[in-house]
Amino acid sequence: MIQTIPTTPIEGQKPGTSGLRKKTAQFRALRYLENFVQSIWTGIGGVAGKTLVLGGDGRAFNVDATQTILKMAAASGAAKVIVGQNGLLSTPAASNLIRTRGADGGIILSASHNPGGDDGDFGVKYNTANGGPAPESVTNAIFKASEAVTEYHILDSADLDLGALGTTTLGDMTVEVVDPVADYATLMEQLFDFDAIRALMTSGFTLRFDAMHAITGPYAREILVNRLGAPESAVMNATPLPDFGGGHPDPNPVWAHELMGLMMGDDAPDFGAASDGDGDRNMIVGRGTYVTPSDSLAVIAANAHVAPGYARGLAGVARSMPTSAALDRVAQARDLPCYATPTGWKFFGNLLDAGRATLCGEESAGTGSDHVREKDGLWAVLMWLNILAAKRLSVAEVMAAHWAEFGRNYYSRHDYEGVDKTAAESLIADLRAQLDKLADLPAGPLVVSEAEDFSYTDPVDGSVTAAQGIQIMFEGGARLVLRLSGTGTDGATLRVYMENFESADFGMDPQAALVDVIAAAEALAGIKTRLGRETPDVVT
Ligand code: G16
């Protein structure tokens, strides 16, 4: 029986950089999830007759939310939902299923790299028929619907058994429970030279993949161990847990410190990698060598042709604006179109759909290609393994060769997390107000050459997205970007991105190489005084 439950709008259901992310307790609160899901149905023009993909990263509330969404989809007339076994699907695997099954869209339950558990975060993201995150036109429509919702519809029925693979029904709706790994693993086999990687694995090469107790454990076991021949011990923290084992499933040197310790130690494996809560981010690290996401993107752009799926070459490349210009150097040398978009994978969708970009990436540890419409953690790991298998060089040697050819963009991001929202917003607003007066003025040891509030005009559909970050260029070529994160749930997070190009000295510590830009950021923004923080919380 379909129940119609009266409700009233709940404030703040505005999707951010990547869906709606809130505290798990908030999502569990009365009508919170239901209001938002009903608003998704309204925002996409109704779900009646549609086929959706549904799954999440296994964090607390994943299963309960999956059951609720299934009953709400059935009550609103959806034709079919394809759901990952036990409600699990990594973000790239969900994107792949939407595309290969010709679904109308999908819902991904994840707060990505944010901690999970009862005290952690939860999230709901809607992806469209191309498999990618909904564009702003859709997320704005969902938000508008959330401000006007008066009732929601839900089927009054028992929970489904999500552990049993196969097809069943819920009311008039078909539910197909699928293996979350199988189709994705097959796609990876089509893109990469598994024979070459297997040969590398049996040549004495050692690797460690840290699944951070998040969704990629089962994927890494199937692909790295079962299909590529790595030993079981190559995958650490492989069992997904609702609270990620109490960890912060963000693959960067700070949060993946267990892996970093190993990789920087005496007995380090040749190659290390990690992925995040929902499997779309990655970290690449060689023995004694951390590879920044921006450098990883540039290396992949320069070498992707070694992988069979990319042997035809790249149509173009794209990065988010704050990502370093290391990619641009490769693009220039190889005569490839190169795009800079706002932060958020959704902005790559049109470029990928239009065939203008094959490869995309972000400084926030996301890299991917046109194989799906999400960034893809294991894809990046396999791409690196394919490159290492083809070149038979160490990660350090790959980096040295890359910098020798293209130069090095020293790069770092400083995050000030959980700061006072009003103080952070006024810091950005005050900088914005001065932008047209900054050119030619000193900023600490540097001199500003150009300053702008980044605005993006999508080259495919002409849509304009303004106010996407303060970008300041300095004489001599250094660059500074400041913006507020759109994914946090506590106060505000200020992100300060810095880069400086170096054509000869590749062995510096990035913080030392960027010391002038760091000083210029402080001089321009007054972070210490305004936010009351002496040092950043996370430096990547
Ligand atoms: C999301 C987006 C990314 C973005 C990142 C950081 O990643 O998909 O495109 O770069 O957030 O965004 P912000 O700087 O606004 O916090 P994920 O992995 O969290 O879905």
Automatic annotation (TrEMBL):
Q: Where is the Alpha-D-phosphohexomutase alpha/beta/alpha domain?
A: 13-152, 183-285, 294-406
Q: Which InterPro entries match?
A: A-D-PHexomutase_a/b/a-I (IPR005844), A-D-PHexomutase_a/b/a-I/II/III (IPR016055), A-D-PHexomutase_a/b/a-II (IPR005845), A-D-PHexomutase_a/b/a-III (IPR005846), A-D-PHexomutase_C_sf (IPR036900), A-D-PHexomutase_CS (IPR016066), Alpha-D-phosphohexomutase_SF (IPR005841), PGM (IPR045244)
Keyword entries, A-Z: Isomerase, Magnesium, Metal-binding, Phosphoprotein
A single Gene Ontology biological process assigned to it is: carbohydrate metabolic process
User: Does this UniProt record's set of keywords contain Magnesium?
Assistant: yes
> Which GO MF terms does the UniProt record name?
magnesium ion binding; phosphoglucomutase activity
Reaction(s) catalysed by this chain, per the record, are: alpha-D-glucose 1-phosphate = alpha-D-glucose 6-phosphate
A Pfam family hit: PGM1_C_vert_fung
Q: Does the keyword Disulfide bond apply?
A: no
Q: What is its EC number?
A: 5.4.2.2
Q: Which cofactor does it need?
A: Mg(2+)
One of the record's GO cellular component terms? cytosol
Which family is this protein grouped under? Answer: Belongs to the phosphohexose mutase family.
Q: What is this protein called?
A: phosphoglucomutase (alpha-D-glucose-1,6-bisphosphate-dependent)
The gene designation is pgm
